[in-house]
Amino acid sequence: MADMKTDIRQFLSRYVKNQDIQDDEDIFSSGIVNSLFAMQLVMFLETRFNIRITNQEMNLDNFKSINSIATTVDRLLA
Amino acid sequence: MDLNPDRRGDAAELIREETKVKCVVWDLDQTIWDGILLEDKRVTLRGEVLEVIRKLDERGILQSIASKNDADAAMAKLEELGIQEYFLYPQISWGSKSEAIKNIASLININPNTIAFIDDQPFEREEVEFSLPQVRCIAAEDMNLILERADMTPRFITEDSQLRRSMYMTDRVRKEEEQHFSGTKEEFLATLNMVFGIYPAGEGDLQRAEELTLRTHQLNATGYTYSYQELDEFRKSDRHRLWVSELEDKYGTYGKIGIALVECSEEVWTLKLLLMSCRVMSRGVGSIMLNFIMNEAHKSGCKLWAEFVENSVNRMMYITYKFAGFQEVGKNGDILILENDLTSIQPFPDYVKVTCSE
Q1: How far is A61 from chain B (nearest CA, A)?
Q2: To the nearest whole percent, how much of chain B has pLDDT over 70?
Q3: Are A16 and B316 a contacting pair at CB < 8 A?
Q4: Is the pLDDT at B1 greater than 50, yes or no?
């Protein structure tokens, strides 16, 4: 789980100005939520962790912080 | 809506438009010029080539090159002939032509089924037909027929078709600059000084709006196509709102790049169409129009629904809706109905200036 969060943080650091994102910080509050970022986040997670994020899982709440992304990925890997 | 005979003719025309050629890929030796450059440095343009290249360019059809040649010598020759500026991402190497065409499709970000390939060699055409059967292959000897082809004759030539090549050219500059930029994506976007404009469609926007409904597949939530006449009716109707968006940045304008069509009843606004040109896919502006409409619906006190029809390439639009807080509430055949409760509307990103007019 810690490794997973490091990977996710590394991905986010290529997109977001804030380079010190806390695990529970809402990454979408800065207005960065745009279709490009959302798509690239989804593509990154699917390729990196070899999962398929279904329509049911595709909700903002599942991706709003590093913690929630890690929980979502973990659930899909199970 | 009744389909009168005129409208039916129109619909047939619209379907044909979907399969129009967006990019013509040229071979060089014995196709663009007479002779073989490696054997004779003094090759000259073939008879009608210049006319064909210029006319295609005026029609907003992009052009590129797939040639087995020495790249430096061939580019120098194109420059000497004064036609270098017409070609985007020329692929000149000793690799296969089908690979060259795949590269072009991916660099321009278009589907290979919108590409036509012109070559004098039957072997090369067969190689492409085998690997990429969706590409239209044309023999160089049939060059005089190209301008007459229906799939190379757009219904309208809009301001945007005329600007198309230069927009792709400046896009290349942007991509290069982005590759050399060391900050984050967000910081890079901020350096572009983007201005995103949203305004109600006027009569002068309708040809381009029709063209966008036909040409756009990836960033298109429903894929509904509407003719000029239908869009004109929506524009005037009390029960519809039709908006157009445009984008510019420090390198120039991208032209009119988005449309949104909302059907309004007393209580519910339904987004029938939300689309944006793939040209702006990497600009981080995909949610702006949606956020704008969420704000407008909120102001009018209506519920907001959006229709979504999945195709093989528009997953990004589904993600856009879901990440903007939409939830699936129903299904009608292939049409998913999504609803946003409008309790939380994201602000516009701060790397772009948004201007809205009534």
Answers
A1: 9
A2: 95
A3: no
A4: no
